[in-house]
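Deviation from plan, reported transparently: D-ribose complex.
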Amino acid sequence: MSEKPIAIASDHAGYEMKAMLAEMLRSDGWEVLDLGTDGPQSVDYPDFGMAMAETIAAGRAERGILVCGTGIGISIAANRNPKVRAAVCHDVTSARLARAHNDANVLALGARLIGAEVARDCVAAFLTTPFEGGRHAARVAKLG
Ligand code: RB5
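Because the crystal trials were delayed, the predicted structure below was used instead.
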């Protein structure tokens, strides 16, 4: 992976988990590009999913992390951009395989569904697992 920052974004439901993960990433030495939201006030998740998509598509970040209540709405928004492969993951195995098989460039988490420990483990798997390529490469190419 390049030295580009990790982009992170959430709606209000994911705000606390986003703050926790951003802190974890910074203390692990990552530069974090925080796209908001900036507090617990109610906002619309599509705005933040689309901000992530624009950031990835423009090359300002290579990987992104999204958090909403379920991870679903914000990932649907991001995935409307063909440059984005956002995977909703609730466990480490999904996060690992999203990278190894799907070359996911965005991890989406549900703050109302998983705890902090699982979220941290998912992020670690997402950031450290390489794409396997091989038989998966042509399939991933078809997604674009
Ligand atoms: C917000 O209440 C909630 O709908 C949102 O965070 C997300 O779960 C949508 O998919």
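The chain has six helices and five strands. We consider this an acceptable substitute for the interim report.
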